[in-house]
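G., before I forget:
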Amino acid sequence: MITKYKNIKQQRYNGPKRSGTPRTKTQAPQLVKHFDGKNKLRIIPLGGCEEVGRNMTVFEYNNDIVILDMGLQFPEEDMLGIDYIIPNIEYLKGKEKNIRGVIFSHGHLDHIGAAPILLQKLGNPPIVGRNLTLAMIKHRVEDYEPNSSKKLKTILIKNISDKITLGSFKLSFFQIEHSIMDAIGLILSTPHATIVHPGDWTMERDKNGKAIVDYSHLAKLPRPTVLMLESLGIVSTKASPTSVELKKTLEEIISKAPSRMIIGTFSSQIERIGWIIEIAERLGKKIALTGYSMKMNIEIAQELGYIKAKKDTIIKVEQINNFPENKIIVICPGAQGEENAALTRIIEGSHRQVKIKKNDTIILSSSIIPGNERSIQRLKDNLYRQCDNVIHGALMDIHISGHGTKDDIAYMLKTIRPDYFIPVYANHYMLKEAEKLAQSIGFNPKRIFVPDNGSVIEFDHQGGRLTKEKAIANYVFVDGMGVTDSSNSVVLRDRKMMSEDGMVVVIATIDSKTGDLIGSPDIISRGFVYMKENQELIQKVRLKIKAIIKGRPMPQPGVTEDDYLKNKIRTDVGQFLFQQTKRRPLLLPVIIRV
Amino acid sequence: MITKYKNIKQQRYNGPKRSGTPRTKTQAPQLVKHFDGKNKLRIIPLGGCEEVGRNMTVFEYNNDIVILDMGLQFPEEDMLGIDYIIPNIEYLKGKEKNIRGVIFSHGHLDHIGAAPILLQKLGNPPIVGRNLTLAMIKHRVEDYEPNSSKKLKTILIKNISDKITLGSFKLSFFQIEHSIMDAIGLILSTPHATIVHPGDWTMERDKNGKAIVDYSHLAKLPRPTVLMLESLGIVSTKASPTSVELKKTLEEIISKAPSRMIIGTFSSQIERIGWIIEIAERLGKKIALTGYSMKMNIEIAQELGYIKAKKDTIIKVEQINNFPENKIIVICPGAQGEENAALTRIIEGSHRQVKIKKNDTIILSSSIIPGNERSIQRLKDNLYRQCDNVIHGALMDIHISGHGTKDDIAYMLKTIRPDYFIPVYANHYMLKEAEKLAQSIGFNPKRIFVPDNGSVIEFDHQGGRLTKEKAIANYVFVDGMGVTDSSNSVVLRDRKMMSEDGMVVVIATIDSKTGDLIGSPDIISRGFVYMKENQELIQKVRLKIKAIIKGRPMPQPGVTEDDYLKNKIRTDVGQFLFQQTKRRPLLLPVIIRV
């Protein structure tokens, strides 16, 4: 399925040299001096340092560039009609030939979602990732443009101990925990510094609070080391349940369910879906998957052998009525209140095969996407009306956060003891909080850099610094088939106006010979006020327009008569409508001369 | 200020008769039998039982009606341009003369916000409330329509022990705790049942977990008792800090602040603002208030003597630069990310007097309004860039929830031991959870009623029941000056379409003699695609329209030619635009014949 790209230089090397005895203090060592002043390592986060999402980081060493992740960001409340936001790659223009490869830390959309668009724009540089990650990118690329995935040049990380060389960069990897399979941590070695970047990560601990995955080897990498740490969990202090606890809870719920079960979750929660399959097989139940992304992801995971199900465990959702209700588990995405997601359709009664019954048991097992809170409330209300057994996150620990908490971040800093600390991949205020945390445990404030999107951080023989240089990093919107720089905001501004107060088109037809108005002006409004109830208002607007046209002065030099009329209508009619309705619709005057 | 309305019958009565020895079981007693079968008590929640907000409950005893609260609800994500939602009073049409009074439990907008509109529509029935509540209603009524507050007929609850008679209803009150001063609990006595309704409530407890306010007297009211309990906190298990703890935290933060302080909070948090004034006076600091609602509320509270400040403690915000920075505390609303709120303007740099400085200390001390999460994130990011000392709810316990938790609800049920339980004033799923909780502690399931908005609950000599009758209770939207029943949804549907994909107006002028198109069709789009970049697309649309007009068949009976052309343009051009852009703008064809 995933073909290893053969033409890429891919040398083994013997790993970074150990710096001798492990250091016991978090102070920085003398920087490597045997390079001249011309070599520089530059780190430029193009996304992921202001809002959450569109994570992307550029690493540049002289003429070699490698990139980590190409994520998408979901639009904010005021970005009306925008499908999603991708990183701005203006900085890479003209440097495409220097790009030695793009590494993907894991398969979540905020790390791979922009790949179909950006890889193409950058001339399809080689991509590096583990099995599932590459398979998910491939599927997304196909979805975006059929048959285009064959252009992908993939370098598969077969084993966590693989070493890959991309130009001056030497890549090695380390195990981390995250809420999707095949997530990896990256060690990027350059002659000037060793960068450690776990991507997104979380931490499971044993009873003594010790991390189950050992990170102490990261303290022994060649100095100086730079830890770039995803800090999305910095404001959370509550530890998630362990996976053992979660499995137990799930098994308990599933075995106690009086009848059918419907489980809503992220379709990327492949490991958890694997657990549910295991449990189902133990209890003799069938699994039906519904929802495009859910079916696609599980198919990929089965092909890769990441999920093992007996031949007849997974049934088609069309077959659920062929089995007793207490033998059925439906798994679907949509616990976040998204429009058109399978669970939303099930709850709203528009799903073809699955209709909710009173004694179903329904689990909402994932966290809420910010901005969807009210939709979720409505979804829950709707669900509780139809079903007696609803279990969701607020009631029970059924979700493991994919992100390390404040304590976990402190643990990482103390264990890895980097020379430099760059908190990343979170809201800006979280990066600042991570900085405060690092300072509070004794980290040298001069060796912490809090970047913005587009910040340039440089390392050379004199040390590291956050420069004043800024790469362009403003939003790039994906809007239907269009990909637009956000500096072109007029379309959005109009959408916002129309979304609040609607619009009114005024069409006046003028006889070009006599200059008289022909007939009555046409007035069309949408989303403004209910026209049938406001005939009087419309009539008054017509009279106003007639008066404006009749009373217009002789044309002035420099202003055409049409421009004068349009402006006058916009101002006078706009004011009148506001007085009458306290609304400001988008007002479009059209003058037609015949 | 608040004039007691003289013409209303307001008799003292001797309080409800005690039912003898306190009962020890939560079973219902025999119902009162000495009333004939004609008398009925009906309870109709017109709002507050599905979504949060627009709380309003109608109590009807034969020909007497009293109402509790008239709140507003903030619009959901898809109610574009709607200012707010008010309860539907269709049920009260024709019964206005029966309304003996409207009781307001406290002054929050979700309990008084619809009063200016609804009181007027109902012919200004007498209103009952405590001092601050009535003053806030009066201000809101004035804001809505200047000079209209003199029409209000107010009955002031001077003392918590006051008794008021409104027709067949006898009102008495009890102390509750909530996040605004002058909140009260209501006891509504009728010959058939005694209703206990604390309005919104929370519970402070002593070290032994015992509620500081004693509710045990509510167990001794004449039976049967009906507890209508706000259950918004049912899914929350975390106890809030006590007010003593919160005061201490606030004093600590304020005394440690290196320079100026800016505190963002709800303007209705009058008590808390009172604490800050106290602390400021102890530390020799000045308070500046900014934001209309903040200044208004504190003015009311000062007039009523609820906030006592020395003459020179509160200064104008214009004066803040006349004092040393470490002597200044600015208090403003806007910690929830609302557009145009004072704190939002301060953070965005558009506030006239207050500009943020690096060493300011800023507290965001209230909870987030659902739906504003992303705006809040952006606000925080923006704030952290400008200021080194930001303190918010996620980091420190600086907010007390105004709502009792799951444990508190259980405590209330066990203490009051009502005969009937009706969870209200929360999302529907929360009401269901409250029902589950009551059942789990042994409450008789047949005596729990979970109402929807518009449900009719009846009590008579045969007992209580949730009937199948439903009063009309769908949304009523306030949209600028318009107040519209939501069944008229075409305006909203158009706004939604335009907010996502914009709109395109196509104007074709046809010579009515020859039937030929005059000139080229005019095409105007807003919020669709950036026109300058899509000239080719527009040109193709023009050609399509020309072809449609040229190729039109002879008019068919029953369809005018204009209708045919409009439909054809909508279908063909709509399809073409979708193919080209994957967007479906609102398409408005206009045919002009000259």
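Chain B touches chain A through 69 residues (CB under 8 Å). Residues 1-35 of chain B have pLDDT under 50 and may be disordered.

More on Monday.
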